[in-house]
Amino acid sequence: MTIKQRYAAVIERFAETMPSPQTELHYDTPFHLLLAVILSAQCTDKRVNIVTPALFEAFPTPESLAAVTPDDVFPYIRSVSYPNNKAKSLVGAARTIVERFNGQLPSDIDSLMEIPGVGRKTANVMLAVIFNRAAMAVDTHVFRVSERIGLTTGSKNPLQTERTLVRHIPDADIPRAHHWLILHGRYVCKARRPDCLNCVISDICRYFSKNSPKETQQ
After folding, report:
1. Degrees to nearest 5, angle at CA 104 with 102 and 108
2. Cβ distance 167 to 148 under 8 Å?
3. Which entry of 121, 156, 190, 203 is annotated as an active-site residue?
């Protein structure tokens, strides 16, 4: 199977089985999605979704969050990973959005990455989810799954993976592909024990073809 054929087959299969994939982070505004994505770094979406309702109610706008201190935010997010640093990032993000972007979330990657707590992955999440741009956010799931199933080969870092995926996936499919790979990695193609027997792409997966007994492939 050529790389072009594998991409086409993977996209077709995911489109059939997950036609409308969505982020599992709960949010009601673009600003609140940004806060949730910042909080989700090295933390589960499930935990983030537990703490964000009260956080969102207390700070509905960038202006309301920009007016407080990290100490004011900490009690709302104390149960997530690295709460002290993330409290600083949330307040810093709100202040930057208010002071530099007139209270509006910017829609280009360079401006987004000027916001505290926002790296390339978070910026690409915002571009894909909020602005429906052809942006591929590469987290640990996307990085692992892409390499395992054969969409990338020997990627050394997330940026290499991102560039390879964007080069091969049609622009219109990239926002969905971001979710496809994350959800597939989260629930099926797990890091330690991939569930190959219940995988919708096992017959076109490089890992399965190389590592599974022949009788399981028949």
Report:
1. 110
2. no
3. 121
Per annotation, catalytic residue among 46, 88, 110, 139: 139
CA–CA dist 173, 133 (Å, integer): 10
Q: Which amino acid is at 66?
A: A
Could you tell me the CA-to-CA distances from 174 to 41, 107, 130, 186, 193 in Å, in that order? 21, 17, 13, 18, 27
Active site annotation includes 139:
yes
214 in catalytic set: no
44: helix, coil or strand? coil
192: exposed, middle or buried (C-beta count within 10 Å: 0-12, 13-18, 19+)?
exposed
Give, in degrees to the nearest 5, the angle at Cα 166 between 207 and 109: 130
Structure confidence by residue, pLDDT tens digits, 104-151:
999 999 999 999 999 999 999 999 999 999 999 999 999 999 999 999
